[in-house]
Amino acid sequence: MIQEFFDSIEDPKRPLLGPNYWLIEKVGLILPKNLISKILYLMCHEFVSAFVLTQYIEVYMVRSDLDLILTNLTVSVNSFICVVKANAFIYWQNDWKEVLKYITEIDKSERGTSDTTMKQIINSYTKYCRLLIKFYWVLLLTTCICVSGTPLIRYLSSSNYREAISNGTEPFPHIFSSWVPFDKFSSPGCWITVCIHIFCCAYGATMTAAYDSMILVIMIFFEGSLKLLRHKCKKMFGSNGLGVTDEQAKITLRELYTTHTLMLK
């Protein structure tokens, strides 16, 4: 089932970045052209950014309890990093689009080669990228489910704990520690808080999956490009004992220089 899902999100127009581009579009890192959809995505991004702010407000409110502060910070720091990644990607979206467009164009042109060694290099880094995003996305999905379900598992696993919550000796369990302008330990405020936490947890997991896997694939691509560049340099003046003309050498040298310049950019 997992393999079928990954096969369904492959994109012939983006042989390397297909699954990654699909995810960053779905989560709104690449904003849609439709104005209403764009506004809705931006509202979601900024809602979660505001939620992270409430986590730090909660840290300030429990500042007298060092153990609770340290527990809260382990989550709130990760949340802060997540929203910084998302907002930075959106803010510099045009630059990211240029990078992704360059990678796609270069990757597609390289795949048209008849050189056996180059094909092996391309197939190798493509396969590695697919395995990486598959395991990384499954890992983050599992993490999201476990984090969201921890309070429920704790509640169901202990009758004493359920009784303590019922009689008020234990507070209502929440996924995250955050401040809200209403009572989050009694109904309906507790259930509103739970819904907010589940949404923010899912958002954080998908954003991290989209951003981190894209960065990893980009780095793997450049490693593969350097291997291809090295192979081309070996063949610059011919191969198998066969030389090349001055004109062919100039053309090859010009192509290598252009490729190297674009990679540096």
UniProtKB/TrEMBL annotation:
Protein name per UniProt: Uncharacterized protein
Pfam family, one: 7tm_6
GO CC terms, sorted: plasma membrane
Transmembrane segments: 135-153, 191-222
Record keywords, A-Z: Cell membrane, Membrane, Olfaction, Receptor, Sensory transduction, Transducer, Transmembrane, Transmembrane helix
Residues spanning the signal sequence: none
Plastid keyword on record: no
GO terms, biological process: signal transduction
Molecular function via GO: odorant binding; olfactory receptor activity
Membrane topology: Multi-pass membrane protein
Subcellular location: Cell membrane
InterPro entries with a match to the protein in the record: 7tm6_olfct_rcpt
